[in-house]
Each structure stands twice: as C-alpha cells, then as structure tokens.
Amino acid sequence: MEGFNDxxxxxxxxxxxxxxxxxxxxxxxFLGTFFFSIVLILTVAVVFDxxxxxxxxxxxxAPVKAIIFDYYFNFIPYFATLFAPLFVFISVIFFTSxxxxxxxxxxxxxxxxxxxxxxxxxxxxxxxxxxxxxxLTNFIIPRANLERMDFEDKYYRSASxxxxxxxxxxxxFRNIYVFMGSYNPISQRGQNFTIERFNDNGxxxxxxxxxxxxxxxxxxxxxxxxxxxxxxxxxxEIISKGKQLDTTLTIKPSDxxxxxxxxxxxxxxxxxxxxxxxxxxxxxxxxLFLIEKHRRFSNPFxxxxxxxxxxxxxxxxxRGGIGMNIGIGLVLSFSxxxxxxxxxxxxxxxxxxxxxxMWIPNIIYAFIALFLxxxxxx
Length: 378
What we know:
By secondary structure, the protein is of the alpha+beta class.
C-alpha cells in the first residue's frame, strides 16, 4: 500500500492501466458482440410479438405510427435490459472461447501480460454496460413503459379489462384498514365502504361504514355518504350517524385501478418516494417495491460477476470447443436468473429481507466467479 504514495509507483500504476491496442481489441469484441446479440434477439422478439398481436392491432385499428413509435420503440429498451446480464455472459463466453481456440489468449499471456491485467478491458466494457442498463432501468424505461402500457390499453387489452374494481383491501396507515366492495373509476364512486382502526394490541377501536363513498377531485378527499361511525372504548361503544363525512386518506382512485406493471413505470426517485409512503402506511405492498428498488442495483452489478465467470470459463482451450463453453455458460446464466426469481418469491411470500433476496444470487455467484478465476490459466 505504501507504494501508492510514491509518485513513481503511481505513475507505473497509470502506465499499467493505460489502454493499449490489445485492450481496444477486446473492448471492441466485447461490446460489439454484446450489442449485436441484443439486436439479433430483439429482432426475433419483435417479429414474434408482432405476429402474436397483429390481429388485435387490426381489430382496434391501431395506427402504424403508434405501433412503431408508441409501442415498439418503448418495447425495445424494456426487453433489452430485461436480459442484459444474460447476453453479457453469452457474449463474453462466445468471443473469449473463440480467442482461446485461435490461441490468442495464449499469445496474450505469453507476451508478458498477466491474466489479471487482461481482465482490465473486460471490466471497462462491463462498466459501460452496467451504466447503460442502470440509466435505462431507472430513468428512461419507466417513461417508456407508461407509453407502452397506454398503447396496450387502447389497442391490445382494453376490451379484456374490467371497469369496476372489486374487493379492495388497503392498509392506509399503521393499524388503519380500508375495505371497498367495489369501485368504479369512471364515476369515482365506491360501494360498501369501511374504515377500521385498531390499537397496537389488535383491538378494534373505531369503525366507519358507508354504503357509498365518493372521491372529490377538487379537495382530493373521500366523502362517506349516509355513514355510521362506531367508537369503542374500554367502558362503552358510541354510535353516531350522518349524511356526509369527509375523510383524509393517503390513497387515490388511481391506486385502485393501476396495472400490475405499475412498479415498472416509476423512476428511481419516484420509486423511493412511493416506498416512503408505503412505509408510512404500513402497506402489504411494500415488499414488492423494495424488491424492485434493490433489483435495479443488483442487476447492473451482476454484469461484473458474470463477466468474470465468463472470462474464467472460456479463456482455456478445451476439447469441446466453443460449444462446450457456451453450454456451460448457458447453464450458469439460466441458473442465476432462476435463483433470482426464487429469492424474490421467497421475499414476497415469506420473511426474507428484500435487499438480501436481491443480493443473495450476486453474493453466491461472486464466490463462484472467484473460484473460477483462481482456476483459470495464468
């Protein structure tokens, strides 16, 4: 460590990390293969998606301009980042195995470059891809998802959606629960409305019931019509009735009719603010949004881990050739994705911490990456 305080040693370190011709060659190969594979799979995905939905587009008379710009221009970045770590892995395996078969890796190592130094252009490429996917996921794709889902509502699945939402349960504050038998977003009226308030011991202390509740867009308040209010104390139960009672709730009509993909339409700042609101409400939906928040960090980080695994696996020339390395790479990459899905479900349905759930696969595969790195030819 003390050598880094010496100007000469620091200069040597800069020279060590200076981009050389071989580094540019590897970076060009890495990024070129990655973006080529993304374009290739996106082309296939768009063709299959269009073939599946063309009947709906024609039935709903979707304009060609809207199909191209409102739907597919927003569909492409969403799909590209969805499997970006997988294509990073496949790209590294493919072109590095080809280099190994052509004895280029042996030539690089025999020239005096260490295996650790050879990883430098790979990590530069991984940084570019990680920043690319992080920026898209947190700032660009949420807006694109809004336009894409709006298009789908108009020209794809609008007929299959019900206008009235039924059996709504929400926890709006700590120990405060709202139930609505049905809600119509057009009239902004709900039926069979109740608010129940409990103490910390789980004992009911008040209950507001109303056959009809109306949302006032001018005041952003809910008005309970012909309400009945029960207030329960240790000594007595007080019942009061009235024609109208305004309530201040931290829920909006859009919360009742939002799409399951709502979480994907929020930028990072919006997601963070919404998580704070859900924490204040004590909502059961909190885990879903925390998982999404930590996934947006863990996925770009996975690019580095999968890059290290890919290089360590494919830098050695094997009898099976490129096919063997690609096969092993596919097994590892799909097992990573499967592991990620399992851990997220364990968090949603169980007690696993959302942050831990999203980082467990990275932690485990980081150890696999270090093991394979130590086993790689030096």
